[in-house]
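User: Need the bound-state model for 2-acetamido-2-deoxy-beta-D-glucopyranose:
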Amino acid sequence: MAVILITTLMLALVAVQGERNWNFDNTDAVRGPSHWKDSYPGCGGKRQSPVSIKTDESEQQSELEEFVLTNYDNTVPSLTLTNNGDRVKVLVNGGKPKLSGGGLGFAYEMSQFHFHWSTNNKRGSEHKIDDDEYAGELHIGHLKQGSNAADAYADPQGIAILAVLLKAGGSEDHPAYEKIFQYLDKIENASNEYEMPSFVLRDLLPSNLHKYYRYNGSRAEPPCEEAAIWTIFHEPVTLSDNQFERLRQLKNKDKFLLHNNRPVAPLYDRKIYISWRKHSKEGVADNCNGLKVSKSFIITVVIMAFLKQLT
Ligand SMILES: *[C@@H]1O[C@H](CO)[C@@H](O)[C@H](O)[C@H]1NC(C)=O
Ligand SMILES: *[C@@H]1O[C@H](CO)[C@@H](O)[C@H](O)[C@H]1NC(C)=O
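Assistant: Bound-state model below.
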């Protein structure tokens, strides 16, 4: 009883202060990620994101063909860069790029994209691939064509999210990401907004769009609606360390935004699919592997026979 009362009082206090009753602080015993489900039961569901992906436990699915990207190569009419208090978010206004194909049953329209990062380059991505965490992750959110956000969030296939894993250590600033990051000083403080010049959003994606992971998941923030079809591209994009450093200069009040990735959720009975055929170098034996061995074996035999003739 006392606990409920105290929790209620704390939530009320939070509401009065105009702050959200959730955050990304794993040490916060009331508002941290493991307590989101106390206020938002959806966050404790069985189809939550992000997840830890194991390539060799994933299955190839032939329906996961190429994506059809429409308007991705045009500049959109306007982009609003925002600091929403824990992340950098860019709202896509008008003339929205469209996404279809890629094993998606519907067409989707881009609505926003945002970045996740953390205190240092060893962590920051939301998804983990074969136990690797990347320095950051870009999420490009798309709503089912013809749906508003509320309808899409209530639909098990209402949103399609493209995730790009971001690596640190690039020798120079990534030019497309710099089109956004050059304006980060304009959104230094929480709720700052800046109408930034538009650019070709396709340039944020990796060059290989054929290899990707696919699973059914959720929005990765409260109320964690289980409405998302996730695509995580296999090929990461590399940014410079300085670009990550500049993300860490952003603030909410007097605090730097240093950590905004949700911990991975259990997979439960979900499957993760991959769009490509696994090869031996990813640790999985298949026919291709056997073929390679026998080819090199044949070549060796031929060379040995040839050398024997010479002697
Ligand atoms: C952010 O807030 C600080 C402290 O109030 C202020 O000095 C600075 O100019 C603000 N930055 C922007 C981009 O508004
Ligand atoms: C996602 O859920 C739908 C509906 O249940 C199902 O048809 C589809 O195969 C699932 N996709 C994945 C990648 O699990």
